[in-house]
Write a structure and sequence with these properties.
There is one protein chain. The protein is mainly beta. It has no helices and 30 strands. The strands form eight sheets. A four-stranded antiparallel beta sheet has the order 2-1-30-29, with no helix packed on it. The chain is globular and about 45 Å long.
Length: 347
């Protein structure tokens, strides 16, 4: 139980195997793991006793180890951590007492510190952070996108910060935010993708905003939205990937929309979808990267989309190995995290 498996691209050691060789089949890494988050080229995981381990690319300090050296094996960085979100080249974590810490690349202000060009760390400066820096109290959830960040407080308030060139912060403009900015209330979930965002209200309404090329917002057009736009009702989960989005309804139906050039919508073709399209039923979880992973209500893992680096776990990789329909990979799966080109699974 609680065994971590990794597969896909490993050029920076993001699989934690101690080498840089890609893996096209699920490879066992550690036991006693309760959560994993795969970023662009780095990975974070939390053990059952709330220890944070990081590995992979570290050029911008996204591992929080105090240096910029890549780590090929899981490295303990913090204790008393209950959640981690790995974004493009940065990371957000929440402690067991609901404090938000951020580290890594800060060129867009995604750390929330207030003094960076785009604000994705929320720290207020332009400096990367190679060690965890405190940003906010009373945080129950964080989502790190490519270079923008969303957090939800214990009072269900949504704060956004970082890059906003396509309105992905939902503030009604295209100005970056260097510090956390309250955008909506009564929010229970947020997912930050490449340059788009999805949120779910406490009454299960889905709102989308940001870049809408490839129709990733599900609005039926390609117009950007700089304010939250209502798209669906009765939604309990949303995952924003690179250029596509997956949502799960309250009755466990999976809907997909956006870019489909590699089959990441699971529709059996490579035609994009401008509106939510029902693809599977009896789904309890979905993770969208540049490809997609879903877990059924009976704990089976299905993968579909780009497989250039073996990230689908099918045992193959390279050209002509993409999957346009969901393919079963593993049983007894509890969690999956998909990224640019590597995958983490907990069984």
């Amino acid at each position: 139980m609680n065994t971590l498996y990794m597969f896909g691209r490993n050029g920076y050691g993001q699989l934690g195997t101690g080498d840089t060789q890609n893996k096209s089949v699920p490879t066992e890494i550690m036991n006693d793991i309760k959560y994993v988050s795969c970023g662009e080229f780095h990975t974070g995981l939390i053990t059952t006793d709330n220890k944070l381990f990081m590995f992979g690319r570290n050029r911008s300090g996204e591992l929080g180890t105090g240096d910029t050296q890549n780590k090929l094996i899981p490295t303990n960085v913090m204790n008393d951590i209950r959640y981690v979100s790995c974004g493009g080249w940065y990371t957000g974590v929440i402690t067991t007492d609901n404090k938000l810490f951020m580290f890594g690349y800060n060129g867009f202000g995604q750390l929330g510190t207030g003094d960076n060009e785009f604000g994705q760390l929320g720290t207020g400066d332009k400096q990367n952070r190679s060690t965890p820096i405190f940003v906010m109290n009373n945080i129950k959830y964080v989502s790190c996108g490519e270079d923008h960040t969303g957090v939800i407080t214990t009072y269900n308030k949504l704060f956004m910060f970082g890059r906003n060139n396509n309105g992905q912060l939902g503030t009604g403009d295209a100005q970056n935010r260097l510090k956390p900015t309250n955008v909506m209330n009564d929010i229970k979930y947020v997912s930050c993708g490449d340059q788009h965002t999805g949120v779910i209200t406490t009454d299960n309404k889905l709102f989308m905003f940001g870049r809408n090329s490839y129709r990733r917002l599900g609005t039926g057009d390609t117009l950007e939205r700089s304010v939250p736009t209502h798209v669906m009702d009765d939604i309990r989960y949303v995952s924003c990937g690179g250029y596509h989005t997956g949502v799960i309804t309250t009755d466990n139906k999976l809907f997909m929309f956006g870019y489909n050039g590699n089959g990441q919508l699971g529709t059996g073709d490579t035609q994009g979808r401008s509106k939510p399209t029902n693809v599977m039923n009896d789904i309890k979880y979905v993770s969208c990267g540049e490809y997609t992973g879903v877990i059924t209500t009976d704990n089976k893992l299905f993968m579909f989309g780009d497989n250039g680096n073996g990230q689908l776990g099918t045992g193959e990789s390279g050209l002509n190995t993409d999957k346009c329909k969901p393919i079963e990979i593993m049983n007894n799966v509890r969690y999956v995290s998909c990224s640019l080109s590597h995958t983490g699974v907990i069984c």
